[in-house]
Design goal:
With about 500 residues, this protein is an alpha/beta fold. It contains 16 helices and 18 strands. A hairpin with a 2-residue loop joins strand 5 and strand 6. The relative contact order is 0.11. The N terminus is likely disordered. Bound molecules: nicotinamide-adenine-dinucleotide.
């Protein structure tokens, strides 16, 4: 092949480069055309841009040493509702709630009754680094989530955007792949600041996205509220703004979101697990599971698996882990984590109806199923050695490392790969987009029935490819996808993606 490796190939040691190993394996197996391979092993566009914003004044907690000079400062009594608590103990005061308040200040220092001494730090400005990677659009508009997190990078978004290309193909929805976001910890900002940051993000992105061009959705650190801000910014002042609702998915149902979207990714994870048991003539009743990450995906998956009769025995998040061999009441845990304003880190830590567990020991809890639903690379070699389960269902993107995968294979622990296990979110995002285009509103039962059919039939095609068992049933058709030999399940999923994507290049050809 005539091309210069040093120019157009992603370095092998980058996250993106490493993530392409399965792509190349599957591409070799199906003898993917060389030009299609070149198209897919790089993103179409990598956008990096910057967002500036003004921050509110913050009250910074003082150390004992710093506070020595203010021992005689009279405590100011203020209701909790005056403060917006932020990560690290900072407080922002709501101006309107302060009207009529009595406060005693000295050199910009205040003693808040019951909280201690704080020094006022003027707001100032910040500059944040923002990204949007558009990987491929052979099958339709770019589609992928927005992540607000402190550890994001171009390399990470390249990897995640490519994964969206594979995932939309596997889910059989007419989209390509994209991903983006902002490097920051959203917990360190007030809601008002997050709103201006998100508006500014869309202000910069407006030229690059659109209902039929690129459609963002929520991911780690973003939610339906962020999508509403983005929609407002994108469509502000436009005469046909009602026709632009489909520019983002994952919206609140009251402004054009789909029923079932919030839980869709977790619902898809649960449907895959149910089908895995179904294929063995078993049900989920009494199966014990652990879940890493108790956010949108992990929380919903846990709730739905419990409703299907499974038992949640341990949950781990960024701050800790909880364990109850008799079963954690997931509804109660959800209330504790997500509906308790005092639980600022939205953490499972401190949940009363379970034992606290070290984050590390979480992995060794006796279980049948493990659902990693937090960040990437959670299950590495040593972690995989400790797992006791029969099945790992990947709710998160890329939670298993190559070493972890080898250990799981050696130990006979099966995997439902992320690109099918967590495809429920993008599948229902597609339903939302269709409903927006048609100005329709489907019921949750309708959405879930479609999702169940779509996820289970695509998962069965993948299993058939893995087992080299081409079949046609009422529900699915894997003939034309198998490769004439058994292949690992993750490679099988990639084979399905590449066959569906390459059909577009082969039938439509290339524009010169
Ligand atoms: P979220 O922000 O709602 O929740 C993330 C959870 O992970 C939180 O409970 C957090 O405490 C936990 N977490 C973060 N860092 C951790 C660490 N180091 N160790 C343990 N736990 C940690 O995010 P989400 O939307 O639930 O997404 C979770 C994963 O699922 C991500 O990998 C995301 O890319 C993937 N995903 C999300 C969707 C979706 O629709 N939201 C769709 C497909 C894939």
């Amino acid at each position: 092949m005539l091309h210069d490796d040093s120019i157009d190939r992603e370095p092998q040691n980058s996250l993106f480069g490493k993530s392409l190993a399965v792509f190349h394996e599957a591409a070799d197996l199906i003898d993917l055309g060389p030009r299609i391979r070149l198209e897919l092993e790089q993103p179409d566009y990598e956008h990096i841009f910057y967002i500036t914003t003004k921050l509110d004044d913050r009250l910074k907690p003082m150390t004992q040493d710093e506070g020595k000079a203010y021992g005689s400062l009279r405590p100011s009594e203020l209701p909790d509702s005056v403060f917006i608590p932020l990560l690290g103990g900072d407080l922002v005061m709501k101006r309107e709630a302060l009207r009529g308040a009595t406060m005693t200040w000295q050199d910009g220092v205040v003693h808040l009754a019951g909280r201690g001494l704080f020094r006022m730090q003027p707001g100032g400005h910040v500059r944040l680094k923002a990204y949007r990677v558009q990987h491929n659009q052979a099958r339709g508009p770019y589609k992928g989530g927005l992540r607000y997190h402190k550890d994001v990078s171009l390399d990470l978004f390249n990897m995640l955007a490519a994964e969206m290309t594979w995932k939309t193909a596997i889910a059989g929805v007419p989209f390509g792949g994209a991903k983006g976001g902002i490097r920051m910890d959203p917990r360190a900002y007030t809601n008002g600041e997050l709103e201006t940051i998100s508006l500014r993000y869309m202000y910069r992105l407006k030229q690059l996205v659109g209902t039929n061009v690129d459609i963002p959705a929520p991911d780690v650190g973003t939610n339906s509220e962020v999508m509403a801000w983005l929609l407002r910014q994108y469509s502000d002042g436009e005469r046909e703004r009602h026709a632009m609702r489909g520019v983002v998915t994952g919206k609140d149902v009251q402004i054009g979101g789909s029923q079932g979207r919030v839980k869709a990714t977790g619902q898809g994870v649960a449907y895959c697990i149910e089908d895995w048991y179904d294929a063995r003539g078993l049900t989920l009743r009494g199966q014990r599971f652990t879940v890493q990450g108790f956010g949108n995906v992990g929380g919903a998956a846990a709730e739905i698996l419990c409703a299907m009769g499974a038992i949640c025995v341990a949950v781990q998040d960024a701050d800790g882990a909880v364990f109850n061999p008799a079963g954690i009441n997931v509804e109660e845990l959800t209330r504790y984590v997500h509906k308790n304003p005092k639980n600022l880190p939205r953490s499972v830590l401190g949940f009363g109806a379970a034992q606290q567990l070290s984050r590390d020991d979480f992995w060794a809890v006796e279980s049948d199923i493990c659902v990693p639903a937090a960040l990437g690379n959670a299950i590495d070699g040593p972690t995989a050695e400790r797992l006791t389960c029969k099945l790992v269902a990947e709710g998160a993107n890329g939670p298993t490392t190559r070493e972890g995968e080898a250990v799981l294979a050696r130990r006979g622990i099966e995997v439902i790969p992320d690109i099918i296990a967590n495809a429920g979110g993008v599948t229902v995002s597609y339903y939302e987009w269709v409903q927006n285009k048609r100005m329709e509103h489907w019921t949750e039962a309708e959405v879930n029935a479609r999702l169940e059919r779509a996820i289970k039939s695509n998962y069965r095609v993948i299993r058939d490819i893995a087992e080299d068992n081409p079949r046609r049933s009422e529900e699915h058709d894997s003939s034309g996808f198998t490769v004439g030999a058994r292949v690992p399940i993750r490679v099988a999923a990639m084979v399905l993606a590449l066959r569906r994507i390459s059909a577009h290049y082969m039938l439509e050809g290339f524009s010169q």
